[in-house]
Amino acid sequence: MSESPQALGAPVVRREGRDKVTGTARYAAEHTEPGCLYGWIVPAGVASGRVTAIRTADALAVPGVHTVLTHDNAPRLEEPDDPILAVLQNDRVPHRGWPVALVLAETPESARAGAEAVHVDYATTGHDVVLTADHPGLYTPEKANGGYPAVRERGDAGRAFDAAPVRIDATYTMRGLHNHPMEPHASTARWADGHLTVHDSSQGSSTVRDSLAQALGLDRDRITVVSEHVGGGFGSKGTPRPQAVLASMAARHTGLTVQLALPRRYMASVVGHRAPTVQRVRLGADRDGVLSSVSHEIATHTSRIKEFVEQAAVPARIMYASPHSRTEHRVAALDVPSPSWMRAPGEAPGMYALESAMDELACVLGIDPVELRLRNEPQTEPDSGRPFSSRNLAACLSEGARRFGWYDRDPQPAIREDGPWLLGTGVAAATYPVLLSESAASAHAAPDGTFRIGVNATDIGTGARTVLAQIAASALGVPQERVTIDIGSSDLPAGSVAGGSSGTASWGTAVHKAATALTGRLAEHTGPLPPEGITVTADTAEEAAQESPYARHAFGAHFAEVGVDSLTGEVRVRRLLGVYAAGRILNSRTARSQFIGGMVMGLGMALTESSTMDPVFGDFTERDLASYHVPVCADVPDIQAHWIDEDDPHLNPMGSKGIGEIGIVGTAAAIGNAVRHATGARLRELPLTPDKLLPYLP
Question: How far apart are CA 129 and CA 135, in angstroms?
């Protein structure tokens, strides 16, 4: 029996799809008007120090240049809620690329030429930008990102490890990574009658509105932030970025509309990155592969501006049963740009290390890697002891192995060939927490039988508009074509950030509650609706404040087949397959896109992507898409995403879990494990580029 068009799970086509492919969808840098000024940042040319002089005369002489803002003449800000937003407020240079001036001109070309004509003198100090495992500045913070305790211990992991008959002690390293969404960060700001309107490329315009209000010293009702269409973010747009503050300051200073779109080569130092990590994993097990000790210790960096600690050791707290465990995060504050969220922060790098170590253990024991994971399935969440609301990792592994043809492989490494290609297969598990944040929504019934839903959700390419319409239509019991969705403006009921795979759960719960309440109101109403219709509102404050008695996580299994060129060291992924347990899938079409998108990003993490820190100049050397290599279509010839039916009543009214990030989590480890199977060489540093592999090839 086919599903009705409004049913949850149906493959409904994206509502905004035609607007995007025809170019009628307008992004943050497409809201200009006559007389608009264009901004261009002057980035700091040193890694640490102070500005001693800024000479702007040559810049102001460039035709079309209107104004140059520096720390000497820029509007003063209140203390912002995020220190990276305190731009042009003093002469300090905390890292290379920090904005030290802003040129405003009548055209983008004039602004760029003016920025190049600004002369800046510095008093430099020594800088330190390279993370090492034994860096003397490493310390143990109180919390890691997400509020997780930096250290957790159960039992005596060290003693249990020493006593284990089989031990793995391995260190895995990753360089920095950058998000590189298709649409660079941009803001267009204008003031009118004391009200500030900002079109911003952001994952949450309510959050941007609140941050601007604090920084500018304004009431929130005097600011509207619009993020109607956003060309990707992957975490880098999850918090307000300096361009929104700079554009707002400049618009206030000049009285004109100001647009500021960051050149891609500036993004590496301004909008966050995944910090490099050095991860030591120690696994102790008996000869049957049953774990007795799990230890995961990471070292990472943060900036001197603020503390951000990638929570890479957290997944090890919940993945596998073991009576003894120690997980610890340490961080060093360096003269680097501030790290931030990148798709599946913590889980993506942390599970790469853990799942690589599990593969190493399987190889030492001669146990199939799928079987090893099944032997260490916990009955409850190891870290908390709470029961899982649902945990179908075993089903994902079994179904994935069946679809992939896993058990047809010869487990011996470096024996399968196809001409010059060495072939191998690998597997890894994945997990991601179920999160829910506070959001609100309104539901309106009009006399003509149509409905309008308002919620400040952000569609960053995920299909949020479409899925929210399906949720509302399902709750209202009407075809989804009768439902209009308003999103992407801070004037709407406040929505949470599109991040942490929590958007659909947070916004959707509010939409479901509002639509359900509206259905009740309509059932009680007699006669025709009033001309103004009926509106109800609802929020998730109660749900967000509740601590669930269950451990709630999505799970998945990744399988990869690779070929390694024995002459060049090039790695080509021949097949990728993922199977996921993510609650109820609300739209099969957009869900598949989300899973596959994460897997492609994981492929880049494994083979092509990295940001190298230059120790001499203190900046990232890969600053464009010519040098920072993201995967292209030719890199993913066969990629499949599947899911199992999962009925979990302990989540939200839709029964859904987040799907935007779990696709990346295990992919890099599966590919790395496949490379080991193909070559017999275990490499522990990503990405797996040819120069690293060549010394190990025949």
Answer: 11
